[in-house]
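Case study B.
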Amino acid sequence: MPEHPAAATVATVAGVPVDTRHWIGGRRVASADTFADHSPIDGTELARIARGTAAEAEAAVAAARTAFPAWASTPPAERARLLHAIADGVEARLADLAAVETADNGALLRSHLRGVMPRVAHNFRFFADRLLELAHPELDTRGHANRVSWDPAGPCVLITPWNAPLMLATWKVAPALAAGNTVVLKPAEWSPLTASLLADIAAEAGLPAGVLNLVQGYGDEVGAPLTAHPDVRRISFTGSVPTARRIAETAGRNLTPVSLELGGKSPMLVFADADLDLAVELAVGQYDNAGQVCLAATRLLVDASVAEEFTARFTGRAAELRQGDPREESTDLGPNIHPRQLERIDGFVRRALAAGARAVIGGGPNPELGGLYYRPTLLAGVAQDSEVVQEEVFGPVLTLQTFDTEKEAVELANGTRFGLAATLVTGDRERADRIADQLVAGTVWVNCFFVRDLRAPFGGSRESGIGREGGDWSFDFYADLRNTVTAPKGWSDRG
Ligand code: ADP
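Model:
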């Protein structure tokens, strides 16, 4: 008997067998070493995962390169059929995927069951259908026909974070495959499990070997060699700004195009004419996923004339949130992902309090639950240039600031290095349009939050990212666009 389940290649997580090895060229591949994957719910070791190195990165890119010509020349209708078959597989294993994801990253089981995993299936269906609807504009230039085509680009490296693992991975995998590319997926080391189930599902759906490859491991050990590989034609990354800088620098050496979806410090602007109940509901909703959401509107900017009323109602509503085991149906707020992340969150809060901030609610770990549970926190008395207003905390920590004029509201809203999203709560549509037009943000929500349409562009400005994905913008990134210009008939006739 091995001392650890270290040598095991299949772990049982929430009753579901999960292969802990890489998936390269249609085969499970082990590494010499493994790393431990713990559940944020109670800290138990869930599995030991293959710890990829440059050798596995090389093997995965080679497999993707080998599989590319056949997949690229597979007719779009057949590629679309296979993506729908993967979506069928996701739906058939919805309960397994949800249970494993919750065990692995601690987000709510009920959200995984009812929201996230159905959207994972939808990601495949949407890009399958969109592929068949892509416009191929035909333009006329003095009798010459221009025909625009979306050519597959080649092997794509997709690197994803831990906060919404399968959701964010499939956001990339689906359009990359639809566009005729082959893929190497590198999930985050803190939540690597559902990607392995996706590999099983894709294989069962009949996706040819090497079209989707999966490598597990740490970013610097296996992620970095993937991004440095000259045969990789696209890199799509969702994660932190420092890692994005490293990836962009590395990719720059090969001029590999990158799409970067990074962090945010998004504002929610609550105007005096807002429906305050709606504003409070939207604001409290920012604690979803224990605040580990890049889009979260973590800066509450409230008109000073309603700030007191807003704060009172917010405090009352937040007190109703039930924090606890994310597998329980009644839980609203689960644990944070990792001890290091909890420490980071608490560091931001402690420094803010030391600098004079006041905790309206929360302000530390939950003493009753212990572990990785952090109390939902609202900090008031924070300066615009303070760390907690400027830096992404990625935990259940919101800040409250007030404004007197629209101009001031816009200045505060735009006053960070980020530009991912913004939320406006107002009863005045003209005001909403006027303000939206002045904001630096990839998405602006008015009287709503998190309404996402896959047809719409998604991404961030400034340090929130480079590029947009969604709808045709995804194909714009994952395809090599070609224009074929043909002379009028007769021009080449030999007389
Ligand atoms: P976090 O989101 O935890 O702050 P990262 O942005 O570093 O951290 O992580 C997002 C993803 O990027 C993970 O899959 C991680 O393994 C990967 N990653 C980290 N460092 C690198 C790197 N140097 N090259 C490629 N990928 C990396």
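The mean pLDDT is 96. The remaining cases will be described in the next quarterly update.
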